[in-house]
Write a structure and sequence with these properties.
- It is found in: Cell outer membrane.
- It is a multi-pass membrane protein.
- InterPro entries: Beta-barrel_TonB_sf (IPR036942), CarboxyPept-like_regulatory (IPR008969), Plug_dom (IPR012910), Plug_dom_sf (IPR037066), TonB-dep_OMP_SusC/RagA (IPR023996), TonB-dep_OMP_SusC/RagA_CS (IPR023997), TonB-dep_rcpt-like (IPR039426).
- This is TonB-linked outer membrane protein, SusC/RagA family.
- The protein is mainly beta.
- The protein has a domain of about 100 residues: Sandwich (Immunoglobulin-like), CATH 2.60.40.1120.
- The protein is about 5% helix and about 50% strand.
- The strands form 12 sheets. It has a 22-stranded antiparallel barrel. Strands 10-15-16-13-14 form a 5-stranded mixed β-sheet. The protein has a 4-stranded antiparallel β-sheet with strand order 3-2-5-6.
- The longest helix is centred in the N-terminal third of the chain and has 14 residues.
- About 45% of the residues are buried.
- The N terminus is likely disordered.
């Protein structure tokens, strides 16, 4: 229909020129600036007249003009209009630039329904597919950072295939998942995280978004609020992200596109540690003792993570390997250990089709090596799609997306013994990490022929871990990289097919079927000879997940005079299966032969679950004169995981939008567009898993034998998931989230300046929390509907085009959002709920009634009644009697600034991402202080700035038992300063709370498109090259030694840092060619 209208408009415009006599003929071609593709149907008008033509299917035009002073106006939906003076030119080729303010007159919304953007009663943002293919991310969710108001993206510091945390308008569930639902071409996609680090360590297993191919994405649309997502019901409480993939296009012959992206990756080293003092300890009395360096092999081992020694620069010291070396700064260990990663992506697309059918095929291959030695991530994507029509009334669409991911050696994080980042951080300034390489054939292992007398007290032998410190948990980073292994392979198929039959011109019936299926095979190896696990162990696991959705819609659209009615009803059936198999083995029989059947003790596990949702839904939209729109939707879900008596819930929404710029003709000419919108909606969430509301029996592998002496598994009572301590609660209901939203969208000066403002208020009720019960019941807790939480905030988007010329344009957008969160209520009688903690175990992420989601609670320094700091007589801080709220990891403001400039055939873009507010507890800086590596630990050392403390010290006790304080002011001796910094780490956690604000140069691209006049003589239809970069610089931050984005987990416990992997910067080039 769109092409037909363009052709008709072309005939109408050409007919206007008949019968007139002109002095000059101008010809030319119109293309898109981004990719050089020809644009058919572009309006070419002589300014000040109604005379003009439309470009043909190849973008060509031919127009008679009156002379050199004639000005041609080129306009096209979705692109910025351009004016060109004819002069003495007979050929005028124009490259048109996309205009964000004009794009999306029709947009894809919930359930894949296309709607007029004027009718939307809620805020939504669409990001074009080209944003994902220039400067790439393995996890495309990270590309949303700084681009969408109200979307907070946390890039987890966990390696090249790590997960991402995306939160839209704040957290809605206290203990459940808070990330949005991802929908690809109408089919929900599983974005499960396959494991994440916690207090004791672990690794980030990645999530589903790493399987999505950027080259397949046409657009990504964020449905932020409840009204936008209400038609998805229970799965949309956290918002919805719609991904629309590319389709074939009608064209002459076969279209071919090739893209090569090659980037190099380096760690973004933020460390600024002291290099004045070396390995050693403070020995003797705090007042009369002194700092000493290692002089024996044993001391070299024992003091391997202590930098409290003497001043560097003179003499020698002994090391763990028995070698005496100069006692000097050893240089940069980061660049010694971490490598330059390389990622090469090659993408080939074939497309074509005619009037009745189009097709597209894509093959993309990604090969990458990590900055971590012996690690990497490879991915292959294959996609095929076709769409078309049978006759005039039946249309079809079918797609298959396949991906295979292979991740080698995921890094260990947090307090994992194999965390190489922590091992390198812990080295004193005079120790070279390469001294621990060990056997060149088995890096990190003890060198052949090493004198056993030089080994540590653990008495390890040849081919075992070459420890650099006298602590089996202090891993050699080379052993971690080359001998330990956490790897996985994942195959995924996402397929969908749809049919639509237009029963009449106003009534249609459509159906869609889709499946998301994946299998993941993982392995985790701790080899024999590992310092903390001499016998070694391994785990192998396989998980198969499938989800099938069937959907049908009956729709109606008709105009009655000034009114239009657009309505539909439908139903959806979802079924999901999840199967897992695991095998664990401990202790290898044959050294270095790594197989489960070579282990001494073996355990096997099997799990299976199945659940589903049945749904019905409907929507009705009534518009008046295309400027007043009223919309209502409703959805009802039935859940198999809940008791039949309580397993259904209804989600309604109502909204209105009023385009006042179309309603009133007397508005000033500088107002190009104006719309008011408002909505109210409810969505829900179910956080319980299959079988959690009923008592079930499990077969547990207990050590028992039958009458014949054979090993058997014994049946024992347990609830689902093996949690025998929780009482099942059949009365559980879904979480319910209610939201109101209002907003205004205005544009000025021919759409060159725009403002979109949104206010929302959301409350979630009936959250599902674990409540403690009497132990006399035989259980410890039960799930109940109790929690309540509220979010309210504003979102602002400013867009502008400061310059718009025929050969030069500059577009800029600025977005900023503020979300205020409050935990309204928890479990009766318990106003605190622990969420997470770091390895220091001195702070907790907690939910507290009346406080924001996930506050940081920890010990602080005690104060006297009049507010003075309390010290011990030796100057050490005294710990407070109770934990206090010392921070919150959620930022106050998030936003971004995006600039895009086009000059002739050159283009430039820059994205700055920022966060303001929010706190970060840095366990990394705490440990660095205790180890004597942090620069603040210089204060009080011999020859450095004195450390003076001032406050009060307890002098006694009054008759009522309360402490009596007296003034205290003391300059600490080096020994007392050593103790002070150690006790600060143990007792005063707010000292290590930092402002988490930052601004980053998130993306930078500089490109050039070869002009068409040159390509006409070549096989190419388009050819462009660009230089690209991601995460190039931190423009502003307030935390030392680490990146503010150093979180090691994508879970709800945000605001914690404990030796997350260094963030990286990437830079390289992108080549795009079309044939």
């Amino acid at each position: 229909m769109k092409n037909l209208l363009l052709i008709i408009s072309g005939f109408v415009l050409m007919s206007m020129t008949m019968g007139q006599t002109w002095a000059q003929t101008v010809t030319g071609k119109v293309t898109a600036a981004t990719d050089g593709i020809s644009l058919p149907g572009v309006s070419v008008i002589i300014k000040g007249t109604s005379t003009g033509v439309a470009t043909d299917l190849d973008g060509n035009y031919n127009l008679n003009v009156s002379g050199p002073e004639t000005v041609l106006v080129f306009s096209y939906i979705g692109f910025a209009s351009q004016e060109v003076r004819v002069g003495n030119q007979s050929v005028i080729n124009v490259s048109m630039v996309e205009d964000a303010s004009e794009l999306g007159e029709v947009v894809v919304t919930a359930l894949g329904i296309e709607r007029n953007i004027k009718a939307l009663q809620y805020s939504m943002t669409t990001v074009g597919g080209e944003e994902f293919t220039q400067a790439r991310e393995n996890n495309i969710a990270n590309q949303l950072a700084g681009r969408v108001a109200g979307v907070n993206v946390t890039n987890v510091a966990s390696g090249p295939a790590g997960s991402s945390r995306v939160i839209i308008r704040g957290n809605t569930s206290l203990q459940g998942n808070n990330q949005p639902l991802y929908v690809i071409d109408g089919i929900p996609m599983d974005n499960t995280n396959f494991g994440q680090a916690g207090v004791w360590g672990g690794s980030d297993g990645g999530d589903g978004m790493t399987s999505v191919n950027p080259d397949d994405i046409e657009s990504m649309t964020v449905l932020k609020g409840a009204s936008a997502a209400a038609l998805y019901g229970a799965r949309a409480a956290n918002g919805v992200i719609l991904i629309t993939t590319k389709r074939g296009t009608k064209r002459k012959g076969l279209g071919i596109e090739f893209n090569n992206n090659t980037v190099f990756e380096r760690i973004n080293n933020q460390t600024d540690l002291q290099t004045t003092f070396g390995a050693g300890r403070f020995q003797g009395d705090q007042l009369t003792g002194a700092a000493v360096r290692p002089t024996t092999v044993r001391q070299g081992y024992d003091w391997g993570t202590q930098a409290w020694g003497e001043r560097l620069g003179t003499g020698t010291s002994m090391h763990f390997d028995g070698v005496e070396r100069p006692y000097v700064h050893a240089g940069d260990n980061w660049n010694r250990f971490y490598e330059t990663g390389v990622a090469v992506t090659n993408s080939l697309s074939l497309m074509g089709g005619g009037e009745n059918q189009t097709f597209r095929f894509n093959l993309t291959d990604l090969r990458s090596t990590s900055v971590v030695p012996n690690a990497g991530f490879d991915r292959i994507n294959i996609s095929m799609s076709t769409n078309g029509k049978f006759g005039k009334r039946l249309t079809f669409d079918a797609k298959v997306l396949y991906s295979r991911e292979e991740t080698k050696n995921r890094p260990r994080l947090s307090d994992s013994p194999g965390n190489a980042f922590q091992s390198i951080f812990a080295l004193p300034p005079n120790v070279n990490v390469e001294w621990g390489k060990g056997d060149p054939n088995r890096l990190g292992t003890i060198p052949v022929g090493t004198d056993p007398a030089l080994l540590n007290t653990w008495g390890f032998a040849e081919r075992e871990e070459y420890l650099m410190v006298n602590n089996p948990w202090g891993q050699n980073p080379y052993f971690s990289a080359y001998q330990l292994s956490i790897s996985d392979i994942r195959d995924r198929i996402l397929t969908s097919g749809s049919l639509r039959y237009d029963i009449t011109d106003h009534l249609y019936l459509s159906g869609r079927a889709g499946m998301d299926w994946f299998t993941r095979r993982g392995s985790n190896l701790t080899p024999q000879g590992t310092g903390y696990n001499r016998g070694g162990d391994m785990n192998e696991n396989t998980r198969n997940v499938s989800e099938v959705n069937l959907e049908g819609i009956l729709g109606y659209n008709r105009t009655f005079g000034d009114f239009n009615v657009n309505a539909f009803v439908g139903a959806n059936r979802m079924r999901r299966q999840d199967e897992s198999i695991s095998a664990n083995g401990q202790g290898f029989n044959v050294p270095f032969f790594h197989a489960i059947n070579n282990t001494v003790t073996r355990n096997f596990g099997y799990g299976f679950s199945e659940w589903g949702i049945n749904s019905i839904f409907g929507s009705a939209e009534v518009s008046y004169k295309n400027y007043l729109f009223l919309t209502g939707t409703v959805r009802k879900d039935w859940f198999s995981v809940l008791d039949p008596e309580f397993n259904s819930i209804t989600y309604p929404s109502v909204g209105a939008s009023f385009v006042f710029s179309d309603a009133f003709n007397s508005l000033p000419s500088w107002l190009s567009f104006g719309k008011l919108r408002a909505s109210w909606a409810q969505v829900g969430n179910v956080t319980v898993g299959p079988y959690q509301i009923a008592n079930v029996y499990s077969l547990l592998g207990a050590p028992a034998v039958d009458f014949n002496g054979n090993n058997v598994a014994m049946a024992s009572f347990a609830t689902a998931g093996g949690n025998a301590g929780t009482i099942p609660n059949r009365f559980l209901r879904p979480l319910l989230s209610t939201e109101i939203e209002t907003g205004i969208d205005v544009r000025f000066l021919d759409n060159r300046l725009g403002l979109d403002f949104t206010y929302y208020r959301q409350r979630s009720t009936d959250d599902q929390l674990n409540a403690q019960v009497s132990r006399s019941s035989g259980f410890g807790s039960t799930l109940v509907n109790l929690g309540q939480m509220e979010n309210r905030g504003v979102e602002i988007l400013l867009t502008g085009t400061p310059i718009r010329k025929s050969e030069f344009s500059w577009d800029v957008s600025f977005n900023i959002a503020r979300n205020v969160n409050e935990v309204v209520s928890l479990i009766e009688g318990n106003d605190i709920l622990n969420v997470e903690e770091p390895r220091t175990r001195t702070v907790f992420i907690q939910h507290r009634t009346g406080q924001p989601f996930g506050v940081i609670a920890g010990w602080v320094q005690k104060r006297s009644p009049d507010g003075q700091l309390v010290f011990e007589p030796n100057g050490a801080p005294v710990q407070s009697d109770m934990m206090e709220v010392i921070g919150n990891g959620i930022p106050d403001w998030t936003g971004g600034i995006n600039n895009s400039i086009t000059w002739k055939n050159f283009n430039f873009s820059a994205l700055v991402d920022f966060r303001i507010g929010g706190d970060l507890y840095s366990g990394t800086n705490l440990r660095l202080t205790q180890w004597g590596l942090h620069k603040q630990s210089l204060q009080g050392r011999l020859g450095e700035e004195p450390l003076t403390v001032s406050g009060v010290v307890q002098a006694g006790t009054s008759s009522d038992g309360s402490p009596v304080y007296e003034a205290f002011n003391k300059t600490l001796s080096p020994g007392e300063a050593n103790n002070y910094w150690n006790q600060m780490g143990n007792r005063v956690q707010d000292h290590f709370i930092y402002d988490g604000s930052f601004a980053k140069l998130r993306q930078l691209t500089i490109g050039y498109n070869v002009p068409r006049r040159i390509l006409d003589k070549t096989p190419f239809t388009t050819l462009g090259i660009s230089f690209v970069g991601r995460n190039l610089a931190i423009l502003w931050k307030n935390v030392e030694n680490i990146d503010p984005e150093s979180a090691y987990s994508s879970g709800n416990g945000q605001g914690l840092d404990y030796f997350g992997m260094p963030q990286t910067r990437t830079y390289g080039f992108n080549i795009r060619a079309g044939f």
